[in-house]
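Note to self: user wants both folds in one dump. Writing first protein now.
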Amino acid sequence: MSDVAAMRRVLTFVQDNPDQHNQCDWICGSAACLAGWAVLLDRGVTEIEDADYNFRRDRWEWEDIATGKVVGLDLLRKDLADEAAGLLGLAEEEREALFCRTAGAGRRANEAALELGWAIVARDEGSLTEKQSDLLGQYGLSVVPSPSTVGGA
């Protein structure tokens, strides 16, 4: 079962800040995918703008140009997805669907990720609609919460 509170925090953030959501790249320029935002929000980062931060892709860290403060992730891409999945309480198949398979939706990637994320939340809260149930099925995900996932709400 997902960590519903953490999922809601990330989904609400990207929904309220669509210009900072890019499901097709972990973290790029001033945007990030759901996995990127899960890790960034956990570290207190709520905005990444090219004008304010110098992103060092090789080290997954940002330097605030004005203050010189470095926000380091110290993670590789796989580690970023693993950490995000842990923070959100996602099972392996949920991680794969939400972080990787939605990115393959092309121009609809952001929308697909949000729809799937909210479907996972609804399932784990016991408020799954028929449309959300069908969506989970399309991604091969169970409509019943998994009790074995760490971080359940």
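First done. Writing the second protein, which came from a different request thread.
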Amino acid sequence: MKIQFSNTRIIKDATTVWYEPGPEVDLVMDLKNLTFRPGSVETIYSFHVLDHFFPAEAQTALNNWKSCLKPGGKMYIVVDDFELITRSFISGDFPADFFNEHFSHPMYFTQDNLLSFVIKSGFKDSNAKIWYADVPDQFKKTRYELIFEIINE
């Protein structure tokens, strides 16, 4: 089973899981506490979910998501890349209003601190990969996104 956390269908053959009903939502579930059987999910796609949680909630969610993954299963985490966003803001690529409209979240991630959360959830850093471009045959990366792919052992 492949699942994606989004209110729209991004991955065509994945079950769309979201915290409230919607036209493209297949299952409504608490995204911090999935109720899938442990080890039953092949792939998890998290699209801009972790950056909407507070730190303790993000860690709880990652721990739960890892427990749902099969051994050898993959998780893709897509969040806003705070380092790139702040550099772009400071260099004048966009005004504060644009930042407030598009990037106001309770939590921000850089490569290092996202990796720290992933490791605290029990993943090995050697099983984490950063995508700097589109994930082939999966989904496209936008300019301000940070994408991690993690394999569960």
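Dump finished. Worth passing along: The CA atoms of residues 131 and 147 lie 5 Å apart.
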